[in-house]
Amino acid sequence: MELNTKKELVLQAYGNFFEKALIEEIDSVAKLVEFQEGEVLIDIGQYIKSMPLVIRGAIKIMREDFDQEELLLYFIGKGDTCSMTMTCCLGDQKSEIRAVAENDGLVAMIPVGKMEEWLGKYPSWRVYVFESYNNRFNEMLATIDNIAFMNMDERIWKHLQEKSKIHRSNTVFQTHQEIANELNSSRVVISRLLKALEKQGKIRLNRNSIDLL
DNA sequence: TCATTAACACGGG
DNA sequence: CCCGTGTTAATGA
């Protein structure tokens, strides 16, 4: 697992984005942090002192409503960062979101001071931060569209495809209840709609898992 | 009409 | 037995 040096890992995940000098700086100041599936990396109301650059694995970003019901906003993966973190760091704000590890992975933590410093120092960093904001914003718009304009059956189908893509597997290991939580619905509806998808031949239902066909 | 809630039966581990 | 699943009846928006 740890055959690679920190620098190689950073280079492998971010070499396409950043110039050499910046990679060197990241190598010297970043702390590598491993995380495990299900781990809560950032919680709502928490202040954030450093910014995570995802090197391996995936993280899901959740929102919590008035009744502590959860709703999945979007995923971030290799080469991504959390835009919320940047807003928090720069403005000294509390986090509005919760970040939960979707699977095992690795992040490079950048101290908040450095990320500000680099904004003036490295064009590629500015571009990265800007594009990152853009990407997350677009994903949020897509999610809003899903909630506002798509039926629940379409949302489930999309959700399954997303999970499948992230885990690089055609089998999604999730119970109906867990899906209901992430989509902020009830299990009865999820069960019924999944059954409908199965009848359409799109999926096969098993206990604790769903196969995409 | 459609989602939610509660309740129940079934079955595999 | 416990939990995930499939279904139904009642209720509400």
CATH-defined superfamily of the largest domain: Jelly Rolls
Largest sheet: 4 strands, antiparallel
Whole-angstrom Rg = 19 Å
Strand content: 15-25%
- Number of helical regions: 8
In CATH, the topology of the largest domain is named Jelly Rolls
Fold and architecture overview:
- It contains 8 helices and 10 strands.
- With 213 residues, it is an alpha+beta fold.
- The chain folds into 2 domains: 6-148, Jelly Rolls (Sandwich); 151-212, Winged helix-like DNA-binding domain superfamily/Winged helix DNA-binding domain (Arc Repressor Mutant, subunit A), CATH 1.10.10.10.
- The strands form 3 sheets. The protein has a 4-stranded antiparallel β-sheet, with helices on one face. The chain has a 3-stranded antiparallel β-sheet with strand order 1-7-3. It has a 3-stranded antiparallel β-sheet with strand order 8-10-9.
- A hairpin with a 2-residue loop joins strand 9 and strand 10.
- The model has no long low-confidence stretch (mean pLDDT 90).
- The structure holds a DNA duplex (13 and 13 nucleotides).
